[in-house]
Design a protein that fits this description.
Elements: H1 6-12, H2 19-24, H3 29-40, H4 46-57
Length: 59
């Protein structure tokens, strides 16, 4: 993934639903980490979730 909008990609490819687009969208680990950080910023569980995701990437 090169930072594109999956919703826009779905529309451009003429898909009626998001599932086919998501099936082939392989998000880079850094993109996933940024998404988690933006959602969890300021929560108590933020550090624990970041550690969990980091451990999953190394598997």
């Amino acid at each position: 993934m090169k930072g594109g909008d999956l919703g826009a990609l779905r529309e451009l490819t003429g898909r009626g639903c998001m599932m086919p687009t998501l099936r082939y969208a392989h998000l880079a680990p850094k993109v996933k980490m940024r998404a988690v950080e933006s959602l969890d910023e300021g929560t108590e569980d933020h550090a624990m979730e970041k550690t969990f995701l980091s451990n999953r990437q190394s598997v």
